[in-house]
Amino acid sequence: MKRIDRPQGSGSESLCHATKNKRLTKTYPILLKFGLRVERLARHYHAAQGDPNLVRSGNISAEEETAILALYKAPPQGMSYIEELRNSLAGEICPMCGGSNPTTLDHYLMKQKYPEYALLTYNLVPACSCNQKRGERLYDAATQARILHPYYDDFMSNPLIKLNFNPGIDVPIFQIVYLMPVADPNFRNLEYHVQNVILRTNFLTFIGKRWTKVKFAPDGVLPGHFRHRSTQDEFHHYLLEQSAARSADEGCNSWASIFFRSISEREVSDWLFENYEVLGH
Ligand SMILES: [Zn+2]
User: Fold this and answer.
1) Which of 27, 91, 98, 124 is deepest in the core (most CB within 10 A)?
2) How far is the CA of 118 from the centre of ligand 1 (A)?
3) How far is ligand 1, taken at its centre, from the CA of residue 209, in Å?
4) Which residues surround ligand 1, an ion (CB under 5 A)?
5) How confident is the model over 158-191, as pLDDT tens digits?
6) Secondary structure, 3-state, the chain
C-alpha cells in the first residue's frame, strides 16, 4: 500500500463532452442528463474522500448504468485519461497492496454498485492483480471499517505494518503487527484493508521466499552484508540502513520495505548474525 497523489482533474470535463457526442451511439442520447451531473458528482466524491459511509449513490437508471459501463470498456479518444491513468505506475509499487507493477485500474467504489463514479479519476486507482482478488470487498456496514484510499488516506505514507516471526523455525509463521495505535480512528480501516486486500495477495509467499534467500543465499538480497558482520551491533546497523534505503525508494509499505523492516528487528538481526556460519555461508 502506498499513498499517491490524486490525479489533477476528475475527468468530468472529458466525460461530459463524450456524453454529447452523437457518434457514440451506445451512449447518446442516454447519458445527456448524466453528463450534466458529473461535475457535481466529482465534487461530492472528493468532499466525501470516496468514503463509502458518506458517498451517495443509486440515483441512476439501468439504461444509464449500461451506457456508463460501455463507455468504461471502450472509452472514446477524448477520454484517453483512463488509459493514461492505467499505465501511469507501470513497473512501480502498487498503491493498493504494496506489490509491484500496477497495470490495471481498481474502482475504489466498485463500478457495479457505484456506476456514477466509474469514470471519474478520483475513483480509479492503479493496482496490480490484487484488484481481482479484492473483488467486491469495500467496507463493513456494521463497523464502518473500509478499504484504504491511496488518494485520500495521507497516513498511508507512514510505516503501517511489520511481521513478527520466530527466525529459528524452518518455516516460520509470519504474524502481522500493526504499527498504528488501536485508538487511532483509522486503525479499523487499516486492519480491514490488510485482511481484505493484502492478505488476499501473494504477500506472505513473497515474504517467505525472501526470508529463505536471506538465510541461505543472502548475497542477492543483502548487498555487501559480509563486510558488516564484525559485531552484532554493526550488522544490526547495516540492516537498519538497508531498511531505510528500501523505504526511501519504494515507500515504507511496499512488500520489500515491510520485509526489511521486519528482519531489522533486533531479535531477528541477532539470530541472523549468530547463525551466519551455521547456515553454511
Ligand atoms: Zn496490488
Assistant:
1) 98
2) 19
3) 18
4) 94, 96-97, 99, 127-128, 130
5) 999 999 999 999 999 999 999 999 999 999 999 9
6) CCCCCCCCCCCHHHHHHHHCCCCCCCCCCCCHHHHHHHHHHHHHHHHCCCCCCCCCCCCCCHHHHHHHHHHHHCCCHHHCHHHHHHHCCCCCECCCCCCECCCEEEECCCCCCCHHHCCCHHHEEEECCHHHHHCCCCECCCCCCECCCCCCCHHHHCCCEEEECCCCCCCCCCEEEECCCCCCCCHHHHHHHHHHCHHHCCHHHHHHHHHHHHHHCHHHCCCCHHHHCCCHHHHHHHHHHHHHHHHHHHCCCCHHHHHHHHHCCHHHHHHHHHCCCCCCC
Ligand 1 centroid, distance to 254 Cα (angstroms):
10
What Rg, from alpha-carbon coordinates, does the chain have?
22
* Residue-range domain boundaries for the chain: 12-134, 158-274
pLDDT at 278: 82
- pLDDT at position 277: 81
C-alpha cell read off for 6:
490524486
Distance from the alpha carbon of residue 205 to the mean position of ligand 1, in angstroms = 14
